[in-house]
Write a structure and sequence with these properties.
Blueprint (H helix, E strand, L loop, with lengths): L4 E5 L6 H12 L11 H10 L3 E8 L2 E10 L4 E4 L11 E2 L7 H7 L4 E8 L9 E11 L4 H11 L1 H17 L3 E4 L5 H17 L9 H11 L2 E2 L2 E10 L2 E10 L3 E9 L8 H15 L4 E3 L6 H6 L2 E11 L3 H21 L2 H23 L1
Parallel strand pairs: 4-6, 12-13
Antiparallel strand pairs: 1-2, 2-3, 3-4, 3-5, 6-14, 7-13, 7-14, 8-10, 9-10, 10-11, 11-12
Helix pairs in contact: 2-7, 4-5
Length: 365
């Protein structure tokens, strides 16, 4: 497909006809229908990120696709919501792909960086520098079938987790699960737990960035059929002990921000929460829980399989492309080097935990 004509708009400037066309194209995509790839997510990011844009691709007088992105200095582009979005790429009709460099030029971009590109994104996968696994839970066959998978693969894990759930009920109080909690106070509690977790593990607290906090509050109020903010909460004795905020479409629950109260850690409330989320998702007709890119012990315990996502950047000649390579590539390669060496990765994790301990000591002074 030739580059055709491209309109570049702020996400909120998309008309309802454009949004409906976007949804129709996503419905025809072979990829799982991640809510991060819907127009509602782009609009929510646009409200908190002034540099957010959507390129509307037109060919022969018809809309041929959409590319949501953010534009930085010297035209350095990135996937919209990069750093928090768990699925990225263009939304295109079937057929020949546009010329990437011509598309970037029409968007006044020198580069387009991504870190969780869909595997089916043939437009950008030639520019991928590294693949990553994104664990998933398949509940298309129903929750009992998922439990059978866990029981066959790791009977001790399932038995132990369910026993801890029962013990939580006996020792703390009645256990109750809400799949779609609407109380904003619980969302604030979840963010506080997550911030504390980031600090304990020596990682950067995402919620220090006001745009991320505002984005979550905005998405919590989003109720579109293919992109709805979903706050799931595990209660015991009338108080929240674990919670998760994510996005769901009709077929995919994108797991995003899980956390729990450390005071109840011995009951593994986070694992119990994820089992109840899988059960509720299956009952709602959702077939896939996407646990997101990255390795974690709890993901290994819960997953039934993995999807592949990609990290990299499409570039065109120019100063901005050079700056992208100088700014991002050394960091990406360092992270890849560490991940590929388990002993080094373990040592790095230990350093981060040490940083977290220092932070806690500083906070107590």
């Amino acid at each position: 497909m030739s580059s055709g004509r491209t309109r570049v708009l702020r996400p909120e400037e998309l008309g309802e006809e454009d949004r409906e066309h976007w949804r129709e194209l996503r419905a025809k995509s072979p990829s799982p229908r991640s809510p991060f790839m819907e127009p509602e997510f782009a609009v929510a990011v646009g409200r908190v990120r002034p540099a957010a844009r959507v390129a509307v691709l037109q060919e022969d007088g018809e809309t041929a696709g959409f590319l949501p992105f953010e534009r930085g200095p010297l035209g350095q582009g990135r996937a919209i919501g990069l750093g928090v979005s768990d699925r990225q790429g263009a939304v295109l009709r079937q057929g020949p792909a546009p010329d990437v460099r011509a598309l970037l030029r029409s968007c006044a971009l020198s580069s387009f960086a991504f870190d969780t590109l869909e595997a089916e994104q043939t437009l950008f996968t030639p520019y991928a520098a590294e693949p990553h696994a994104a664990p998933v839970i398949d509940v298309a066959g129903g929750y009992p079938a998922y439990e059978e998978v866990l029981r066959a693969r790791s009977p001790k894990f399932l038995k132990t987790t369910l026993a801890k759930e029962r013990r939580l009920g006996r020792q703390v109080g009645d256990v109750r699960f809400v799949f779609d909690e609407r109380d904003p106070a619980v969302l604030r509690t979840l963010m506080a737990w997550k911030s504390a977790q980031y600090r304990r593990t020596g990682r950067r607290d995402r919620f220090v960035r006001q745009w991320i906090t505002r984005l979550l509050h905005g998405l919590a109020a989003t109720r579109a059929p293919e992109c709805a903010g979903t706050l799931s909460v595990l209660y015991a004795g009338g108080r929240p002990v674990a919670a998760h905020f994510g996005l769901r479409s009709a077929t995919v629950l994108a797991c995003w921000f899980p956390a729990y109260d450390p005071a109840y850690a011995k009951y593994s409330p986070g694992l119990v929460l994820h089992l109840r989320m899988a059960e509720a998702a299956a009952a709602a007709g959702i077939g896939l829980l996407d646990l997101g890119r990255g390795a974690a012990e709890y993901k290994d315990s819960l997953k039934t399989g993995e999807l592949t996502v990609y990290e990299g950047a499409a570039t065109r000649p120019g100063t901005g492309a050079v700056l992208h390579r100088l700014g991002r590539e050394p960091v990406r390669r360092t992270h890849a080097f560490v991940r590929a060496r388990p002993r080094l990765a373990a040592a790095a994790a230990g350093v981060l935990r040490g940083v977290g301990r220092v932070r806690r000591v500083g906070d107590s002074l």
